Amino acid sequence: LRDNTSITDLHLYNNDFGDQGVFALAGAIQVNSSVAKLHLGGNSIADQGVIMLALALQVNSSLTRLLLNDNNISDQGVIALAHGLRYNSSLTQLDLGDNRIGDQGVSALAGMLRINSSLTSLDLSANNFGDDGVIFLANALRNNSSLARLDLRDNDISDTGGTGLVEMLLYNASLNYVGLPDAIDLEERVEDLTEINTEAASSHVAFGKKVKLLVDSEQDSSEDAVSLALVGLGRFSESDQRQEVLHGLLGSHERGKDVAASVDLATRRILYRYAAKSAAGPALANLLRAHPSLCERRDK
After folding, report:
1. Distance between CA 170 and CA 192 in Å, rounded?
2. Edge-to-edge strand ranges of the sheet holding 37-39
3. Per the CB 3.0–4.6 Å rule, which of 15, 108, 251, 268 could disulfide with 82?
4. Shortest CA distance to 106 belongs to which of 126, 85, 124?
């Protein structure tokens, strides 16, 4: 592998060579420029082996898929791996399923995801973390725009962690699949939000659809929808982008007027300014229907 430039896919699954085998392999991966997929699942690899791989990933620029499932990796190894991926811009798929990763390891991966913009798929199924680890991930993924698949099945996650994921998905526009443990009772809401991400043509369109989902939902309040919309209006700067968010909040003929009527004076003025500057006609109309004094204030 140090000299070979033709091998692109190296499948070494279930050979049980352990850390010693990885030590030799990691040195070759550091200088190899052809291998794109490396499958090392089922090889009794532990933390020391992953630490060596992490060092290789800091300099390797060809590897796009790394499968480390079904090994003996714990937090120590994952912390090193997360550090290595802060400096890597080629890896798109990382499979760490069926290992021994706890909340500390997931916290390190969450920190990496705040920086890394190449990873699109992360498998953490069948590990040892719970709600704390999921909350770390949820906070990091609010503003991540690259990760599309996240598998969290078969972990000790309750509805507390699931609620954190739902809140994250209101802001995240890239995730189109989140695998959850069967015990979590929020699968339908997660699927609704990831489906919006999948079908929306852009992040601002997804944001507007999620605002409308809250407006139309019997489970959520208009305050939740307004809070989300205000974040979107601050995040997006173009008029057409803000129109999508405002349409989701205030565009409906009846519900839009109800939402407009529910906001306090400071919020209605903020929404009115955004609607006027963005030429968001239906939103502007509902604001004025609910609060005619806004027009009088503008005239003055």
Report:
1. 10
2. 9-11, 37-39, 65-67, 93-95, 121-123, 149-151, 177-179
3. 108
4. 124
Could you tell me which of 115, 114, 113, 109 has the C-alpha nearest to residue 68? Answer: 109
> Which residues partner with 93 through β-bridges?
65, 121
Walk along the chain (300 residues) and give the pLDDT tens digit of each residue: 888 888 999 999 999 999 999 999 999 999 999 999 999 999 999 999 999 999 999 999 999 999 999 999 999 999 999 999 999 999 999 999 999 999 999 999 999 999 999 999 999 999 999 999 999 999 999 999 999 999 999 999 999 999 999 999 999 999 999 999 987 888 899 999 999 999 999 999 999 999 999 999 888 889 999 999 999 999 999 999 999 999 999 998 788 989 999 999 999 999 999 999 999 899 999 999 888 887 755 544
Give me the residue label for tokens 């690899």. 45
- Rounded Cα gap, residues 281 and 239, in angstroms: 12
Distance CA 113, CA 220 (A): 29
Q: Give dist(CA 148, CA 178) in Å, integer.
A: 9
Amino acid at 259: V
Q: What is the total residue count of the chain?
A: 300
Backbone dihedral angles phi then psi of residue 122, each to the nearest 5 degrees: -135, 120
Exposed e or buried b per residue across 51-67, where buried means at least 16 C-beta atoms within 10 angstroms of its C-beta: bbbbbbbeebeebbbbb
Indicate the residue type of 27: G
